[in-house]
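Q: I'm a student working through a structural biology exercise. My instructor gave each of us a protein and asked us to get a predicted structure, then write a short paragraph describing it. Mine is protein-glutamate O-methyltransferase. I'm not confident about reading structure output yet, so if you can add a plain explanation after the C-alpha cells, that would really help. Here is the sequence I was given:
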Amino acid sequence: MASLLGETITLPEDLFALLSELIRQHLGLEYPPDKRSILQDRLYPLLVEEGMDSFFDLYYLLKYNGGNETLWKRVQSALAVRETYFWREVDQILAAANYLIPALQAEAPGRTVRVWHAACASGEEPYSLAMALSENGAVDWERLEIIGTDFDETSLNIARRGVYGMRSFRVLPAHLREKYFTEVQSQHFQIHEKFLKKVQFKYLNLMDEAGMQGMQDFDFIFCRNVFIYFDIPSITRTAQHFYEALRNPGYLFLGAAESLLRIPTRFELRELHRAFVYVKQEKEET
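A: Happy to help. First, here is the predicted structure for protein-glutamate O-methyltransferase. I'll explain a few features afterward.
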C-alpha cells in the first residue's frame, strides 16, 4: 500500500479499471484485476516524483492533458520489463545466424538483409545475434542491418552504451564474454566497438500505428517474450504489422511461451534448424 507524506495512497478498483484500460490502449500491456497491486506499486514512485496526490491525478493527466508524451514515456519506463540476458533461447539465434541469414545473403547477393529486434529492452538479444554471426564467420557484414527498438529510453541508453553487469552473462559461455567484451569496471563489461557500430537502436512503441507503419522491408523480426504481456487484440494488431513489415519470404521469432495459435494470422509455423519460427511466404503471382 503506497504512502505519500504519511497519507495512504491506493489505486481504487474503479480507477484501476479506467487506468489499466488506458495503459492497454496506449502501450498494449494487460493488467488483469489480480495485478492491481503490481500496477499500483510500479506507478507509485512516479506519483511521488511528480508531487501528485492520487492516482486520479495521473489518470487525468494521461488521458486529458494533450496526450502528454513526456509523462507517457515515464509511465512506460516505470512499467518496462527489463528481464533479458545474452544467449536467451539461443536455438532461434543460432538458426538465424548459422543458416537463415547466410542462406538469404547467398540467394540475393545484391540485397541487404535487414533484422528487427522489437521490444529489445537493453539490447542483449540483438548483440547475441551479432556475436553468433561473428562466430559463424559466413556473413557479409556490409549487407546486413540490425535494428533494435524499445519503448523505454532507459533501456535503450544501456543498449547504446553496451555495458552490462554479470546478471546479463548468466548463460553466455565464458569464452564469448572474454572474446567480445572488455571489462570497463568491476564486474561490468562493454561489448566491442564493432558491434556498437553495427547494431542501431531507436525508440518505438509497438502500439504506435504511425511508427509501426514506418518499419518496413525486414527479412527477420524477433519479438520474444513480449506478447505474454499483451491482450489478444494487441497481439493481433502487432502480428499484422509484423506481417506487413516483412519481405517475402520473411521470418518472425517469438518467445518459447508465446504463439499465434489463438489469433487469425497468415503466418505459417515451421520448425527450421531446430527452432520454431513463423514464416511469411506468399505465392508469387504468375
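A: Here are two points you could use in your paragraph. Confidence is low (pLDDT under 50) at residues 1-6. Residues 122 and 158 are 6 Å apart (CA to CA). It's a good idea to check both against the output above yourself.
Q: Great, thank you!
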